[in-house]
TrEMBL record:
Subcellular location: Cytoplasm, Cytosol
Lineage, broadest ranks: Eukaryota, Viridiplantae, Streptophyta, Embryophyta, Tracheophyta
Species whose genome carries this gene: Cucurbita maxima
Membership in a protein family: Belongs to the GST superfamily. Tau family.
Pfam family, one: GST_N
Protein name, per record: Glutathione S-transferase
Domain GST C-terminal: 90-220
PANTHER family found in the cross-reference section: GLUTATHIONE S-TRANSFERASE U17, GLUTATHIONE S-TRANSFERASE, GST, SUPERFAMILY, GST DOMAIN CONTAINING
EC number(s) reported in the record: 2.5.1.18
Keywords in alphabetical order: Cytoplasm, Detoxification, Transferase
Record gene name: LOC111487217
Amino acid sequence: MAKDEDVKLVGSWTSPFVMRPRIALNIKSVHYEFIQETFGSKSPLLLQSNPVHKKIPVLIHAGKPIAESSIIVEYIDEVWSSAPSILPSDPYDRALARFWASVVDEKFFTPMKASVGAEGEAKKGLMNQAVEAIGLLEEAFGTLSRGKAFFGGDHVGFVDIAFGSFLGWIRVAEISNGMKLIDAVKTPGLDGWAQRFSAHDAVKDLLPDTAKLLEFSKVLAAKLKEKH
């Protein structure tokens, strides 16, 4: 087994997908080197490590690259197998966790991403899709948590990491659109969960500053408008 010193993560502080493996590494108490990519460019290391998608994050463990955030999180859970586990041990519960993590990406992230740079009715429609997805996740939290603190029960698990990595961007979206996506009235389960997740030792130092992320979002939106 390679030592922790052989662990590197290529990414950016703005990316929720990069935040996922960072949380997982923290949960497992793995020391790693974080290699920050520059926005708008792709380093030779990134292109060499992920020649197919050419995207962050990439975990490099003992010189071997692993790409795609969810795959990296599962890899971390398997390689550093000491407790707490990120994925449930029960096959059915594990399948459910993977399913709801995919719902986060497909039903929530997809319209949220498309809404950046969108305007008028198009933006409103996309935000409504994101709100519907949050409603589904509110119901899922009630089922998966079984009355405990996190989607993963007593511990931060796979779905917590998948959805919680977006909390910084959710706050930015709430400010930008003048609407609450998660609140104590409409989504009481997620509201309490978000506070607990944000305060967790594996998470609290990784959450991006809202003001800085808001400024970055404006730059990103401007870039997207230029492309159109």
